[in-house]
Amino acid sequence: MTDAQIPATVSALVVTAHGGPEVLQLQRVPCPAPGPDDLLVEVTAAGVNFRDVYERQGIYPGTPPFVAGAELAGTVLAVGSSVTEFAVGDRVATAQASGGSHATVALVPAAKAVPVPDYIGLDVAAATMLQGMTAHYLVRSSFDVQDGHEVLIHAAAGGVGQLLVQLAKASGAHVVATVGSEAKVAIARQAGADVVIRYDEVPDLAAAVRSASGGGVHVVYDGVGKSTFDASLASLRPRGMLVLFGGSSGQVPPFDLQRLNSGGSLFITRPTLGNYVAERAELLWRASDLFAAIGEGTLKVAIGGRWPLAAAAAAYHALESRETTGKLLLIP
């Protein structure tokens, strides 16, 4: 790829201030220049995620203006002088683009990129990186799900939820899933959930979970947060673990740690993907494990919608209103 083929400016979705989707503006910005350890990538697809929402809202660090997004898949346009693992034309994906992924061209640190096999579409690769590796570290590392474990997965029809159900079932778990509508019941069951409970149809969610799991679950995977937190704690059996990995309904307020004692010597963790892919070997293991499962047909990645950059606010509205049942992508 010659310099003449690298554009001087690119289209990018800029967060102009902290706030709602209305602060997003599509702008022309200078094309980023790769440093010695970077890749310049033409973006085929970029993921829309709650971590992007938290950055836009100011819950996660970041000072506007900045380009939104971190997850993408695409084709390498140029490589930094120190890069040896990748070459121009390679297909790559990442969940950790630097300088934002919601653009036609983006910078990716070579150490944070993974090669995409030819049998994986770039849209599927983009849809897999953040949510797929999140589901992978949750099931394999935050709590290592094994045969016979009782597992509760909230928002099981969502992008991460469907992947969590599939990975937990593949590990031999009995999966209790929660969803918010009848349409989502079918999606959770199709993903493999053994029991599906609707939030809006039970007066006591924790009691329903305990009944469905032989007295309580070993682990709860909760990406909903504020509205499910109390039921999540109450659904655990003694020495169970609550893995709180998101807050789509709002952030959980401070709580009395003595509740972990009275609940039965419970554990709680609030993990984030970055700490589980900090080492390159671990990043490559998670990505290759996921890509192999997709290629074998044992893991299915559901894409719930595709939007152009100009309609990104609609994509974020769909995500934040919890109307979606799969991964949302922007197609620059």
Description:
- 29% of the residues lie in helices and 26% in strands.
- The protein is α/β, with parallel strands linked by helices and 332 residues long.
- The strands form three sheets. Strands 3, 5, 6, 7, 8, 15 and 16 form a seven-stranded mixed β-sheet that branches. Strands 11-10-9-12-13-14 form a six-stranded parallel β-sheet, sandwiched between helices. Strands 2-1-4 form a three-stranded antiparallel β-sheet, with no helix packed on it.
- Strand 15, helix 9 and strand 16 form a beta-alpha-beta unit.
- The radius of gyration is 20 Å and the shape is globular.
- The relative contact order is 0.15.
- The mean pLDDT is 94.
Name the features.
about 325 residues, alpha/beta, Quinone Oxidoreductase, Chain A, domain 1, Rossmann fold, 2 domains, seven-stranded mixed β-sheet, six-stranded parallel β-sheet
The domain tally reads 2
Which CATH first-tier class of the largest domain would you pick?
Alpha Beta
From the N-terminal CA to the C-terminal CA, the straight-line distance is 20 Å
Overall strand count: 16
Structural class: alpha/beta
Q: How much helix is in the residues?
A: 25-40%
Rg is: 20 Å
What is the fold's blueprint, element by element?
Elements: E1 9-15, E2 24-30, E3 38-48, H1 50-57, E4 66-67, E5 72-79, E6 91-94, E7 105-109, E8 114-115, H2 122-142, E9 150-153, H3 159-170, E10 174-179, H4 182-191, E11 195-198, H5 205-212, E12 217-222, H6 229-234, E13 236-244, H7 258-262, E14 267-269, H8 280-296, E15 303-307, H9 312-320, E16 327-330
